[in-house]
Amino acid sequence: MAEDGYKVKLNVYDLSNGLARQLSTSFLGKPIEAIWHTGVVVYGNEYFFGGGIQSTPAGSTPYGRPMRVVDLGVTHIPREMFEDYLREIAPRYTAETYRLLTHNCNNFSNEVAQFLVGSGIPEYILNLPSEVMSSPMGPLLMPMIQNLESTLRNNAAPQATQFVPTPASVSVPPPAPAPEKAATAAPSSAAAKSEEPAPAAAAEKVSKEAAAPAPAADPLGSARGKVQEEVMREFAAIMASGTLRASEAAALAMRRVMERHGDGATMQQG
Known about the structure:
alpha+beta, protease, PPPDE domain-containing protein
């Protein structure tokens, strides 16, 4: 009943499916519990930011079962008024305005919770970006994050400026920057090798093989370009399939590369 109010809950998901907890220490240099995604559940629906403002019947989002459910309180705001509010803020929540660190699904949930119940979502969820960026790997991730955001803004399909209470998939062509980057990265490496005299190259190879521990001494230096390039390729391939929204594709791309590098780090340590 409206006079009794409507319960408001926060569904909390781990986009890494446990990989963040397992691999974050080796990948980032500090433990991270999860890669958080959240949605606000009220009026029988779940509302979330995924390329635009989306809603689905509660329990039917593409994120599966939530890792936890947080009780945010009770609202007396009618559903019609709430959805008018969503239409009003929709221009601020599009693919073009999405920022992985400062304007993401969790920032949307926080704003919506404040509108509905007068208080936001848990701080540990909102603080995740600062935790990641304060890690040893954080500064190396920044160029990759900027490239992902640029790709999303330049290649994502235009979003409607009105709230639409049904999920909408985003289908876009593969982003151009990734193949160009791959095409320029490989020749630069090949050119460096071709300019080097053969005897010197052979001597360098023998020297590197003799000093096997040397590459492991600075894993972040060599990982920087590789991680960024791999994530961009994964992101392009996922978006080309047209099955996921851009924000989900970015998270999945990061998860896949994170898993590969985490496995590599585990093998080196073993």
